[in-house]
Design brief:
This protein is of the alpha+beta class and 255 residues long. The chain has five helices and 15 strands. It has helices spanning 7-30, 37-50, 117-134, 143-156, 249-252, and strands at residues 54-55, 67-71, 74-76, 90-99, 102-111, 160-161, 167-169, 176-180, 197-200, 203-205, 211-213, 220-222, 228-230, 233-236, 243-244. The strands form four sheets. Strands 8-7-9-14-15 form a five-stranded antiparallel sheet. Strands 1, 2, 4 and 5 form a four-stranded antiparallel sheet that branches. The protein has a three-stranded antiparallel sheet with strand order 3-12-11, with no helix packed on it. The N and C termini lie far apart (41 Å). The protein binds magnesium ion (2 copies). The site of one magnesium ion has 5 residues, from loops.
């Protein structure tokens, strides 16, 4: 069942989305060679609590950390650890909050120091595909329009789209209906209605689309160990144009 949000709920979702967006920027300011991913997790937890919110992932389904930190061939759901970031890595930072009974959820893939042109192209394409998808988060459209936009854009550049993990509705629960795949067919899938709120989150691989699950039951890796990128924003479906609740502006304008 898809829950259409009230205007009040959308404003609370926006408050969550802004806290998440600022947390991603705070984490980003600390990303550098030599920093451990566990240190980044602590920074995020403290920042979220300082803003009166709770980490949304901590304890969710048993997930033991504030952030999902996914380096290089890790697609999503990487555990923070004592791994020290190295020059040339890429790291997806996925962050959730719970605040005033609603949830926030967004992700950004950061370069660590100087990265290769090939890896920068992957980041650029994945983020661009997210915005291509967001353009279709309008009332009267279909979920398949979003997936088609992401898939057609990234596959034309030679990348592949992860199938096993998808975007989702968000509200009082972190993951609500509908599922929002990053692949699909135009005009197919769930019809989008005004004030549905969804997280669009392309996971795009340099190599094959296939992935496998870590023995820990969480971390997802590319089957060929090539790199994967992940960007996510929370979007309220509106007539004519979407209302994007989270933002990368705190990350990109503070550099
Ligand atoms: Mg997320
Ligand atoms: Mg999500």
């Amino acid at each position: 069942m898809i829950k259409i949000k009230t205007e009040e709920e959308i404003e609370l979702l926006r408050e969550n989305a802004i806290i998440v967006s600022k947390t991603l920027a705070e984490v980003g300011r600390h990303i550098a060679p030599g920093v451990t991913t566990l240190e980044l997790d602590k920074i995020a937890e403290e920042f979220i609590r300082d803003h009166g919110a709770e980490p949304g992932f901590l304890g969710y389904g048993g997930f033991p950390y504030t952030l999902c930190l996914s380096v290089n061939e890790t697609v999503v759901h990487g555990f923070p650890s004592d791994y020290r970031l190295q020059e040339g890595d890429i790291i997806s930072v996925d962050c959730g909050t719970t605040y005033k009974g609603l949830n926030g959820d967004s992700a950004y893939t950061f370069p660590v120091g100087q990265i290769s042109a090939e890896d920068q192209a992957l980041l650029d394409a994945t983020k661009a595909s997210l915005y291509k998808g967001i353009e279709h988060a309008v009332a009267g459209g279909r979920v398949g329009d979003i997936g088609y936009a992401i898939q057609s854009y990234t596959e034309a550049l030679g990348y592949s789209v992860v199938r096993e993990l998808v975007g989702h509705g968000i509200g009082h629960h972190l993951h609500e209906s509908p599922e929002v795949p990053n692949y699909g067919r135009r005009g197919h899938g769930v019809k989008l209605s005004e004030n549905m709120v969804i997280c669009i989150e392309p996971m795009i691989n340099q190599g094959v689309k296939d992935v496998y699950l870590d023995d820990n039951g969480w971390a997802v890796y590319t089957a060929d160990h090539k790199k994967s990128a992940h960007f996510e924003l929370t979007v309220a479906v509106k007539k004519g144009a979407p209302d994007v609740l989270s933002t990368f502006a705190f990350i990109e304008n503070n550099k």
